[in-house]
């Protein structure tokens, strides 16, 4: 069983930090992890729990959490509570203590070894660090970082650590100077690590962290999250039985009020917190006293009365002096809200029970102590109205998002003012107002702090293990492909090698769902269940666009392959792109794997074809398509071609080398959308990085004829993919059953093209093909013009003049990198115009006489004096305003 190791630097059995760990750990448990938690007793000195054995702490937590700790820390020479206190005081607070640093390093080394030993013994897979940057114990933080690096390298892991900071120096007790002053020279600052992903609770914390450590990478915002299901009887939707009523309260732990001597009809304010001076529980007691003449209001304080006995005694005396001792209940520690009844052993109770019986939840904390305010979030999630002070981060976390509550302004005084008391009294006495406020906050809270927020981020991190023998991940972006998907998956499942069915352990399928609204995902999951020998992963991608989906799938596969330590993981690993509306031949994957393994190329490009039976009544269209494909076969064999999303493979190393798929955005109807040519641009990046591309003609993909059938008008006019330099995504799927009957795969065919239409379609196709597939390869890699086969194709004279002209244009344009899309288009277009006649002559000689001659020039170039032709070609191709050159060349592939 996989293991999650959690460590809380809070050193208490129950706190906001521990509660957040429970919430996050639940996601791991649901995925089959065994959860261990180190409460940090051997970390923090001021809690008087150093080396203290666990006793009843487990009773406060869900049964599935195993309390654990690193063995042997009490045997580390010089490491004890006094040493940690001395380091905090002298090194962190005073900025001195240099004489202690050698001892810090020695102890950290020994602790690091023991941490790794513990993780090795338990076979830990993930680590969740809570509050590790807060410099309570820089020795332990140093040790933990060292252990992460050692263990990560040894196990060949990816980012197996989530490092979440709930409090930082600028958030937690900044007025006391407890943690020194900026730039916090003794604090162990976050560092970039291939094994750690950092989490901040809100954007302000992330921003300040980056001000402190500007080059920090992999830091995300994950707000504290809450389970937004109202506690039974605790302020359900208006009008529901039991909302804010005593009968409803009986439905959950009906003995709660009776057990604590609280009258069933008494309004109850809940305060669940640590009982320490900084929490300012005295404000709640004063509030109860001020409300006494209006209602029999009771206050329930849930917290460990033994943590600060002096503060507890002070609060009891205060309640007595104000005449409300009988209305203030110190209920001791309750199991956290997320633990629920399962953790409340015997007659115990949880925060969930308290909220089920509360009319209001209070958070009248000090201004500069709390960083987030979990009690507010718990109340919102449980549909209980709350009241609060405007503490330092209240507006950042809750107030600016529009939550409604009585807010005590600390600029007005240290204790509740009359206006604040009046606003609370109004809520206490008006059940309808409580219901409306609670319901509004609940809906808003679910949007901002719902458990799905954490689930979405954690889903990215839960990369399922990859098989030890897996060599290829087939990435399949899908959007509403329910009709085609079964056939596509069948073709992937039916892959064969030279001796029979292809070993399923060699490949997997990563299906990336791009917001499908039909049965696509259900079909995929059903297929996976019916074919357990083929690993099939369904991964969501919320940003619409095939480029985003392809990138998500390839990143998902790349990261998982890097985590393997099996012998086969040392061999080349391939990311393979497929298309949900195309079908692959049964030898598709084997041919790709064999060609890539036997060569040195970074990308393998497949062969694409249309099935002739779909064009039996359309000979003119078929002829135009076949001429294009014959030209492509010749140039792909020479240059390797460029990848098309319908089918190509890339080595993981090359993918990572160029930074993966790049998402480029363009404007469409006033909105930014991701560019359609991510596959093409990716191939250019790889070739531009010095890597080779190989053509694998035996790896064949059948193109769905709907790509032509339902865009035929645009094909004929050269606008199939947009115009004016804008390449747009067009959904070319039939919209109705009639459309499917007219043009779907294997159905009746639309009519053939007229001779004029066929000529125009061919001209746009060959104009698109020639600059991209004949000129662009040598523009990006001029050394290809020294290759014997390339020289034979062009002829020695044309090859030499092309090379010279490329050098001249490169120098003239001052371009050192032709990989950006508009950097390569302009020179490719210019070279086409200058050499079109000669290039077409070579195509006729190698492909066939029916290739013909170049299409007519644009009218504006026909009357240009020959001696100035190249000059005006430059102006035409670089006309950034009109997009005429893009329109002339068809602005994208046709067939």
Automatic annotation (TrEMBL):
The keyword Ion transport does not apply. Residues 473-632 form the Glycosyltransferase 2-like domain. It comes from the Bacteria. Keywords: Transferase. Residues 256-438 form the Glycosyl transferase family domain. The keyword Transferase applies. One of its GO terms (molecular function) is glycosyltransferase activity. Residues 734-754 are annotated as: Disordered. It holds the Pfam family Glycos_transf_2. InterPro entries: Glyco_trans_1, Glyco_trans_2-like, Glycosyltransf_2, Nucleotide-diphossugar_trans. PANTHER family: GLYCOSYLTRANSFERASE, GLYCOSYLTRANSFERASE 2-LIKE DOMAIN-CONTAINING PROTEIN. This is Glycosyltransferase.
């Amino acid at each position: 069983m996989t293991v999650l190791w959690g460590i809380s630097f809070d050193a208490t059995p129950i706190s906001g930090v521990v509660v957040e760990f429970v919430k996050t750990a639940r996601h791991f448990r649901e995925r089959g992890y065994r959860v261990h938690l180190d409460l940090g007793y051997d970390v923090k000195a001021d809690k008087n729990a150093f080396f203290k054995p666990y006793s009843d702490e487990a009773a406060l937590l869900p049964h599935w959490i195993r309390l654990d700790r690193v063995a042997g820390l009490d045997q580390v020479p010089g490491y004890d509570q006094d040493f940690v206190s001395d380091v905090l005081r002298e090194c962190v607070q005073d900025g001195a203590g240099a004489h202690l640093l050698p001892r810090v390093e020695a102890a950290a080394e020994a602790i690091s070894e023991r941490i790794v030993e513990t993780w090795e013994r338990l076979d830990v897979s993930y680590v969740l660090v809570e509050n590790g940057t807060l410099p309570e114990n820089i020795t332990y933080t140093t040790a933990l970082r060292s252990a992460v690096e050692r263990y990560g390298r040894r196990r060949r892991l990816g980012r197996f650590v989530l490092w979440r900071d709930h409090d930082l120096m600028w958030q937690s007790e900044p007025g006391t100077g407890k943690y020194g002053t900026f730039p916090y020279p003794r604090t162990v600052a976050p560092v970039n690590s291939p094994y750690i992903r950092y989490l901040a609770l809100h954007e302000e914390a992330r921003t300040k962290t980056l001000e402190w450590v500007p080059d920090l990478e992999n830091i995300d915002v994950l707000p504290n999250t809450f389970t937004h299901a109202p506690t039974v009887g605790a302020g359900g939707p208006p009008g529901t039985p039991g909302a804010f009523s005593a009968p409803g309260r009986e439905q959950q732990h009906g003995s709660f009020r009776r057990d604590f001597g609280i009258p069933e009809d008494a309004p109850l304010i809940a305060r669940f917190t640590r009982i320490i001076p900084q929490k300012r529980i005295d404000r709640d007691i004063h509030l109860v006293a001020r409300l006494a003449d209006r209602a029999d209001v009771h206050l329930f304080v849930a917290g460990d009365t033994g943590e600060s006995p002096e503060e507890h005694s002070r609060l009891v005396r205060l309640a007595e002096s104000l005449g409300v001792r009988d209305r203030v209940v110190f209920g001791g520690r309750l199991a956290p809200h997320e633990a629920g009844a399962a953790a409340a052993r015997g007659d115990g109770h949880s925060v969930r029970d308290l909220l089920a019986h509360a009319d209001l939840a209070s958070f009248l904390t000090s201004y500069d102590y709390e960083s987030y305010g979990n009690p507010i979030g718990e109340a919102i999630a449980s549909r209980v109205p709350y009241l609060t002070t405007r503490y330092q981060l209240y507006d950042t976390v809750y107030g600016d998002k529009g939550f409604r509550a009585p807010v005590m302004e600390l600029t007005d005084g240290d204790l509740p003012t009359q206006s604040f008391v009046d606003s609370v009294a109004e809520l206490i006495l008006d059940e309808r107002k409580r219901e409306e406020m609670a319901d509004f906050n609940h809906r808003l809270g679910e949007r901002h702090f719902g458990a799905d927020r954490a689930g979405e981020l954690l889903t990215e991190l839960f990369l399922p293990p990859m098989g030890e023998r897996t060599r290829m991940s087939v990435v399949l972006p899908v959007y509403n492909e329910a009709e085609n998907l079964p056939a596509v998956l069948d073709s992937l499942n039916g892959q064969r090698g030279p001796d029979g069915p292809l070993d399923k352990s060699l490949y997997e399928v990563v299906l990336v769902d791009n917001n499908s609204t039909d049965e696509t995902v259900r079909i995929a999951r059903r297929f996976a269940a019916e074919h357990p020998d083929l690993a099939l992963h369904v991964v969501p991608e919320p940003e619409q666009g095939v480029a985003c989906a392809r990138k998500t799938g390839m990143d998902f596969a790349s990261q998982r392959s890097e985590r393997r330590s099996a012998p086969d993981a040392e061999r080349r690993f391939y990311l393979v792109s497929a298309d949900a509306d195309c079908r692959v031949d049964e030898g598709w994957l084997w041919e790709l794997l064999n060609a890539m393994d036997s060569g040195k190329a970074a990308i393998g490009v497949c062969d694409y074809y249309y099935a002739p039976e779909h064009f039996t009544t359309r000979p003119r269209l078929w002829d135009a398509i076949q001429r294009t494909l014959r030209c492509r076969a010749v140039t792909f064999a020479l240059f390797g071609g460029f990848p098309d999303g319908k089918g190509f493979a890339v080595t993981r190393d090359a993918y990572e080398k160029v930074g993966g798929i790049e998402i480029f955005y363009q404007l469409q109807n006033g909105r930014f959308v991701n560019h359609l040519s991510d596959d093409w641009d990716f191939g250019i990046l790889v070739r531009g990085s010095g890597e080779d591309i190989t053509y694998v003609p035996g790896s064949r993909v059948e193109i769905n004829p709907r790509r032509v059938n339902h865009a035929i008008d645009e094909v004929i006019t050269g606008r199939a993919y947009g115009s004016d330099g804008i390449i747009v995504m067009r959904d070319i799927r039939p919209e109705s059953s009639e459309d499917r009957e007219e043009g779907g795969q294997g159905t009746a065919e639309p009519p053939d093209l007229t001779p004029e239409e066929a000529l125009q379609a061919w001209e746009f196709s060959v104009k698109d093909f020639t600059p991209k597939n004949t000129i662009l390869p040598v523009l990006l890699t001029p050394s290809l013009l020294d290759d014997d086969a390339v020289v034979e194709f062009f002829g020695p004279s044309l090859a030499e003049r092309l090379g010279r002209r490329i050098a001249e244009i490169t120098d003239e344009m001052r371009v050192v990198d032709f990989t950006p899309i508009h950097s390569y288009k302009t020179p490719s277009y210019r070279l086409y115009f200058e050499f079109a006649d000669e290039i077409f002559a070579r195509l006729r000689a190698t492909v066939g006489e029916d290739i013909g001659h170049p299409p007519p020039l644009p009218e504006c170039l026909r009357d240009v004096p020959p001696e100035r032709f190249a000059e005006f070609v430059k102006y035409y191709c670089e006309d950034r305003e009109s997009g005429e050159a893009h329109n002339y060349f068809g602005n994208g592939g046709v067939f």
